[in-house]
Amino acid sequence: MRGIILLIDSMLAMLLTSLILSHFFSIQTIPENYEDIYYSTISRDLLRVLEVSGKLDEILNLSLTDKLLDAKSSFKTYMQSILPSDLNLILSIDVYNYIDGNFYKILGEIFTYPGTFPVSEEVYVVEDIKVIGGEKFAKISLKLWRGTQNLTIVKISTFLDAGMQYPSIHFSRGDDLYYFITLVDRFGNPVRAKIYLMIIDPKNEIREHMEVEVIGAYFGEFNFGEDAPSGSWKIVVMSEDGTIFAAKQIMFE
Amino acid sequence: MGVRAQFFVFDTIISIFVVILVTTTLFHIVQIMMNREMEVIERSENINEVILVLKNLMEDPDNGIVDESNLINSTKLQFFLNNCNNTSFLITLGLSRPFYFRISDENWAPLYECNQIPEKFKSLVTFSRFASLNRRFVIVSLTVYTK
Questions:
Q1: pTM above 0.90?
Q2: A157 and A77, same structural domain?
Q3: Which domain-ending residue is among A122, A146, A170?
Q4: Are residues A134 and A41 in the same domain?
Q5: Is there a contact between B143 and A182 if contact means CB atoms under 8 Å apart?
Q6: ipTM beyond 0.90?
Q7: Residue A97 CA to chain centroid, in angstroms?
Q8: I need a surface site. Which of A179, A206, A241, A246 has the fewest CB within 10 A?
């Protein structure tokens, strides 16, 4: 009897071991990802948006008139406002002039955002030729690559109205504060997270404290109250473990 | 009852207990493995679908909402918003899963939306593209998930 029981036990143990091993060595039929297509298309999107918004013309004109620092600063400010934080890019501009049957390079500049060169092998490149006028043309090349960090990007936007038409950081007595908090990952995916939201007055007293389960975005409103002190107020968003995700300062008068 | 008989009963009970324990563990391990595998496959399929549908939604010659300069065509956008729950229209874009569509400004504040993300979902993925709407920078995002 004992022998039979031991035999059954050992058979089950063998079955378990073989199942675990087959899991590790199995050929997984996961479909191929199209992330390469995605990054190629967004690098093209960015170049087109730069062209359509007139930002590329502005950068070109500043560079050609020896205002290179202004051009670099303008590029960085624009990219900071539109580009998700984990994306990096380099914009190369080479301007040529056609004189007497020959091409002469009259400008060769590189604009980096946030300011590094690619360490990744997956760099997505898109190029375009832009005629500037006369005999000049520019060769534009945009290289885009991903950072490796797994980030949760938190943004706090404040408004004077519930329709979020009037963004502001200045509030007067009688105004209500409307805030919109977004949590996205590097792809712009809404991140699901429990956040702690605090509104702190200039005397460092917590006027509002709440715990919210957020899926990508949270909209809220806050009434300053009649006794609200004037000065600099803070909206602080913290993670569950107390790490500060983001903070925004607003002025109340 | 003799000592040998007592040992035999004790052995039998322990063995049955071990068999039940091993079977339960086995069942749970297989279930966890299957779920994990399914999640990976589902997520991967959702990634592929959302990237391709977003490409169609933006660039398709008939239904794409942007032109060659990535400027959003208001008429085509309105047509999409009006038909964003029309199953046969969505199939032409290659969209077969539940989705949430949003156009937001640079602060990710929504300007146009279609559908909502429910409280409960699985394998949610979102990809975003950049475009211009009335010379203003906008982000076009598409989220798909599994119910």
A1: no
A2: no
A3: A146
A4: yes
A5: no
A6: no
A7: 37
A8: A241
